[in-house]
Amino acid sequence: MELVTPLIRKGGCDTVFVMPNLQPPVTQVSQATSYHEQLSQLAPDVNFLMSLYLHPSINAEVITEAAQSKIIHGVKLYPAGVTTNSQDGVLDIEQYYPVFEAMQTHDLVLNLHGETPGVEVLIAEAAFVPQLHKIHSTFPRLRIVLEHVSTKEGLEAVRACGATVRGTITAHHLWVTTEDTEHDVHSFCKPIAKTPEDRIALLRAVVDGSSKFFFGSDSAPHPVQSKQQAGGAAGCFTQPFCTSLVLDALDHGIKHEWITKAEVTREAVEGFLSICGRIFYKIASIDEVKLRKPRIRLSRHGGAIPRSIKSADGELEVVPFRSGQEVMSLTWIY
């Protein structure tokens, strides 16, 4: 935490949604409050939106307390066993319907890791789609985010839902496919990257201008040892370069004619990277977002992703996604 949190703004972000799948998981408001304080001390110029980990200890009373905290904006549902630190996750989604009802009442967001346990990983997201539709139809006013969408089926599921359902897309899913993850441990993530067709569909969703999708880094700074060991940790560390990675992926898509230059408008990119997420989480109106400062400027040359990032004593090392590659340089404009 001490190594990577101060690097958040380097990636062009001043607001982050903090996932709760720590060890132990963040299941109590007091834990989220303490975590928020630690993060804010390390990066005081970042707005941290906290979340709780859906767990049997969470009930309607906890949701009320979370809503009153003003720092907790969502509850993350992890199906048991599908990703890092999800062993305490959900086995029976309907068991939590009273919690969803309370969240709908208090206007907290339900954040979904949308994969079904026990099925082949390449179809796990598609297999989860009926659960998304069922939750949405049962709780139509509940704001829902299908996190880190990785398939055409996931994209279409979000599009088929009403205005209270959105999806996030990561930088790394715009770059890699299943084949890449087989040869590079630092590209291994969950949901696992899928087919080239899925990757292209994600690129097109970024610039479709629909506001149904916005950026979510899902950045995971695992120590190099945990990535390189057998059964290495799932997750890509993208945060310090995430905005540049997204824009470079769009450039790559244009060169390969997967998307057109005309589609990559400032409005589409700004909507995906900034406006749509802020409005959905109700942390700013569209007018406030468009007028807000500071802003960021990116240049096509001058940026590079280091081979690794190390702590001052050299004991902790993290390898960024696409390490050693050139990227757009980023500066803040005040």
- Rg value: 19 Å
What is the helix/strand order?
EHEHEHEHEHEHHEHHHHEEEE
Secondary structure tally: strands:
11
The biggest beta sheet is recorded as: 7 strands, parallel
Q: Name the helicity range.
A: 25-40%
Structural class: alpha/beta
**Segments where pLDDT lies below 50 for 5+ residues?**
none
Report how far apart the termini are: 27 Å
Question: Describe it for me?
Answer:
There is one protein chain. By secondary structure, the chain is an alpha/beta fold. 34% of the residues lie in helices and 16% in strands. It contains eleven helices and eleven strands. The chain has helices spanning 29-42, 60-69, 97-106, 124-138, 152-160, 178-183, 196-206, 224-228, 242-255, 266-280, 286-291; strands spanning 15-17, 47-53, 72-77, 109-112, 144-146, 165-169, 213-215, 295-304, 309-310, 317-318, 326-333. The strands form three sheets. It has a seven-stranded parallel β-sheet with strand order 1-2-3-4-5-6-7. The protein has a two-stranded antiparallel ribbon with strand order 8-11. The protein has a two-stranded antiparallel sheet with strand order 9-10. Helix 2 (60-69) runs parallel beside helix 3 (97-106). It is globular, with a radius of gyration of 19 Å.
